[in-house]
Amino acid sequence: MNTISETPLFLRALNGEKVDRTPVWIMRQAGRYLPDFITLKNKYDFFTRCQTPELVTEITLMPIKQIGLDAAIIFSDILVIPQAMGVNVEMKNNFGPYIEFPIKNESDIHKLNISNVEEKLNYVFEAVKMTKKELQYNIPLIGFAGSPWTILCYMVQGSGSKTFDIAKSFCFKNPELAHKLLNKITSITIDYLKMKINAGVDAVQIFDSWGGVLSHTDYNVFSYPYIKQINDALKILRPIIIYPKGCWHAINSFSKIGASGLGIDWTCSARNARYLSGNNITLQGNMDPSRLFSPKNELIKLTKEMLNEFGKEKYIANLGHGILPNTPVDNVKVFVDTIKNFS
Ligand code: CP3
Fold first, then answer.
1. What percent helix, strand, coil does the chain show, rounded to 5?
2. Could you state, in order of their start, the residue ranges of all structural domains in the chain?
3. Which fold has domain 4-340?
C-alpha cells in the first residue's frame, strides 16, 4: 500500500510537500570515492560497467547501502547520448572523455543518427528495471541526461576543457549549425528520458555542467531554450530537477517553467537562490564538494549552517557539484548523518 504519507521523502520535497526531515543525496554518489567502486573500476572498463545491468545495479546500490542516502541515481554517463548518435566516445584513464573525430561541419551533423534509441540504449533501460527491483520502495531512483549545451561541448570540443573554446567558437561562427546540432541532441534526449521513465525512474535530473562557460546572453540562446524544451516534454510525466552549474542568472527563469527542482552550486547563497526563485521551486544543494575534506567538526558546523540557510521546506540537501575522487568515506557519512539528524 502506498498512501500519501508513505511517499518517499525525496519525492515529497520535490513536490513541495511538508517533510519530517530534509532528504539528502549526493551528485556523482555512485562512483568515484567508494572503495568497492574502485575495485570494480580496476576490473572492468568504464563503458563495460555502464553496459552491464548487473554491474550498474550493484554500483547504484553501493552508496545507498553504505552511506544511507534518500535517493539513488542510476550509474551511467551523459555521454551515452553522443554514442547512440554514432559518435565514438572513449573514456581514457586519468584524462576523461575523448572523441577522436569531434563534430566540425554540417556533414558531420547530418550524419548523426537520432533514431532507434530504444534499441541502442536498451542496456540503460534494462539496468533501470533491474535496479528498481532491488531498491526498497522508499528510495526513489533518479534518471539523468546532460543538457543539450553540455553534450554539444563534448561533441565539438572532443574532450573536457576549462574553457570549451573550440565548442564556443564553433557556435559563435556557425550559429545555424549549432542550433541544428542542439535540436538533434534535444530530440534524442527527450526520447531517451521518456524511455528511462517508462523503465521506472522516479525523477529526472538534467546536468548543465558547462552552462557556466557561457555569458548570460549566450546562455539564453544556446542552453536555456533547449533545457526548457526537455522540461516541457517531460514535466507532466515525472518531477524534473535542472542543475545549471555556474548560472545563478538563470535561476529566476528556471523557477517559472514548471520544473520541480533546481540545483544550486556553492557560489550562490541560499538566500540569493530563494530570492531569485521567488520560493517557487524546491532547491537542491549546495555544499562545496571540497569541504568534505575539512576537519569533521568544521564540516558539521558548515552543514548545519547550510540547512539553516535553506530552511526545511522545499529543500533537498546535496553538494553544489559532484563528489570529488578521494573524498574520505567517513566525511561523506558525517555530512549525510548531520543532515538526517538535524532538527
Ligand atoms: O552518481 C554517479 O556517479 C552516477 C553516474 C554518473 C557518471 N557520470 C559516472 C562516471 C553521472 C551522473 C555522470 C554525469 C556526468 N558525466 C557529467 C555531469 C555531472 C558533472 O559531474 O558535471 C559529466 C560532465 C560527465 C562526463 C564525464 N564522465 C567526465 C568529465 C568524466 C571523467 C572525469 C570524472 O570522473 O568525472 C566521466 C567519467 C565518469 N562518469 C566516471 C564515472 C564514475 C569516472 C571514470 C570511471 O569510473 O572509470
1. 50, 15, 35
2. 4-340
3. TIM Barrel (3.20.20)
